[in-house]
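Internal ticket - ligand job 260, adenosine-5'-triphosphate:
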Amino acid sequence: MSTSTPSPVLRANGLAAGYGGADVVHGIDLELVAGGAPVGVVGASGSGKSTIVRALAGVVKPTGGHVTWSGRPVSRVGLRDKKRFRAQVRRVAQEGLGTIDPRSTVDRVLGGALTDARRAGTANGATVAELLAHVALEPRFSSRVVGTMSGGEKQRLVLATALATRPAALLLDEPLTAVDPAMRGEVVRRLAETTAADGTAVLLVSHDLELVEHLCPHVHVLAEGTFVASGTLSQVLADPEHPAVQDLAQAAPLAVQRFR
Ligand SMILES: Nc1ncnc2c1ncn2[C@@H]1O[C@H](COP(=O)(O)OP(=O)(O)OP(=O)(O)O)[C@@H](O)[C@H]1O
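stdout (structure tokens):
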């Protein structure tokens, strides 16, 4: 067994971040390690989950502490390395299609993502059909115009686009809210396989405890901008010391029953 600990792809140390001069998260310590187990962040609406993801992705600048990418501050990634950073650290946000053109076809969108991956030097010869399979979309979707897809199909397309660059870190912010529970389970199963095979470090932010439980052996509970409990989801829910964990347990009684 190797004694060396792999260094994190992304690390937050005492991270504070917010908007308009007011911090909404503070004192956040988090590590995403290549080949490591996916990490989950759960917590009430407005507790700051998306803000942590934005800070890790370099979209929001820390007001305190540090976010580092392979040891370098994300806030100081220069123009020259921006492309590599964007290919290596992919954020799938809850805000919808992002930069994907709804008038484009799936084939063109995913083909373009694969071209970007080749340019960034991260491609592994994957095809559009393989990317579709990673998110349980059938091959017939390749000719579809993006704007005609259902909400859940679009979310799976966004995820496939992120997987195209074989990112070192994948930051998932409520990635499958519009996907029905049965299909969500299937997508997560495939996602777990793909990211484990590639050694992708995964962070999942979600209200869906079942989704978090399926993917993430380790979770942090966020309350008012700070982590108040950490461990496996069953450990955290079995000992709800903090009111935020009690709220979480009450909001998901079925999930809690299963964990007990
Ligand atoms: N662009 C912004 N400008 C000002 N305030 C913001 C902005 N984005 C988020 N906030 C505020 O920061 C706080 C944390 O928001 P954030 O989106 O990180 O929470 P969240 O835990 O992801 O919530 P949800 O589960 O509802 O998505 C909230 O009070 C929110 O209103």
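Auto-summary: Residues 19-20, 24, 43, 45-51 surround adenosine-5'-triphosphate (CB under 6 Å). The radius of gyration is 18 Å.
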